[in-house]
Amino acid sequence: MSTQYNCQKCPGYCCSYPLIPLEKRDVERLARHYDMSFDDAREAFTKEAHGRKYAMRRKKDDIYGRICRFFDTDKRSCTVYEARPGVCRSFPGEGRCGYYDFLKFERRAQDDEEFVALTNHG
Ligand code: SF4
Ligand code: SF4
C-alpha cells in the first residue's frame, strides 16, 4: 500500500498526543544519544503519567497547546529523529494517517494549503 500522508506538510499533530509512551529501551536509546546516564535521561525526558512508567515529557506549543519536549516548534519537526522512541517509528503505520486525511479535507474546504486543522484529543 502506498503512503497517503506527508508529514512534511503537517504541523506534527501526532507529536502532540497527551501520552507518548516510552519503553525502557527507548529511554536507554535517548540516554546513549545524549551521552547521559539512564537515570538522568529518565528524569529529563520522561515522567510517570497515565499509568505509564516512562511517559514523554511535553512542553508548551502555540498550535496544539502541548507537544513532545523534543519537538522543534519553529521548524515543526522532531529534533531527535534518529533516536526517537519506538512508538514514533511505528506511527501511524502503513497507508493512511487519520489526521492527515482530516487536514487535507479541511485545507481543500478552506482553499488554504497552510490551514492547520485543530481537533480535540478528547
Ligand atoms: S499526524 Fe500524521 S501526517 Fe502529521 S506528522 Fe503525524 S503521522 Fe505525519
Ligand atoms: S520524539 Fe520526535 S517523533 Fe516522537 S513525539 Fe517527540 S518530536 Fe514527535
The ordered string of helix (H) and strand (E) elements is: HHEEEEEEHH
- Major sheet: 2 strands, antiparallel
- The mean pLDDT is 93
Q: What percent of the residues sit in helical stretches (DSSP H or I)?
A: 25-40%
Bound molecules: iron/sulfur cluster
Overall, the morphology is: elongated
Unreliable stretches (pLDDT < 50, length at least 5) are none
Percent of residues in beta strands: 15-25%
Write down the oligomeric state: single chain
DSSP strand tally? 6
Radius of gyration computed on alpha carbons: 15 Å
Termini gap: 30 Å
Discrete helix count:
4
Class computed from helices, strands and strand pairing: alpha+beta
Widest β-sheet, arrangement of strands = 1-2
Please summarize what this structure is.
With 122 residues, the chain is of the alpha+beta class. 30% of the residues lie in helices and 17% in strands. The protein has helices spanning 24-33, 38-45, 86-90, 98-110; strands at 46-49, 52-56, 58-61, 65-68, 71-72, 77-78.
Description:
The protein is built from 4 helices and 6 strands; from the N terminus they run H-H-E-E-E-E-E-E-H-H. With 122 residues, it is of the alpha+beta class. It has a domain at 16-91. The protein has a two-stranded antiparallel ribbon with strand order 1-2. Strands 3-4 form a two-stranded antiparallel sheet. The mean pLDDT is 93. One iron/sulfur cluster (SF4) binds next to helix 4.
